Amino acid sequence: MSDDPNVGVDPALVSTRSVEVVVMALLLGVAVFLGWDNLRIGAGWAPDGPQAGYFPFYLSVLLGGASVVGIISALRHPDLKDEIFVGRSAFGRVLRVFIPTILFVFLVQVIGLYVASFIFVALFMIVIGKLSPWKSVLTGLIFSALMFYVFDVQFNVLLPKGPLEAAFGF
Question: Deepest in the core among 23, 54, 74, 79, taking most CB within 10 A?
Answer without folding.
Answer: 74
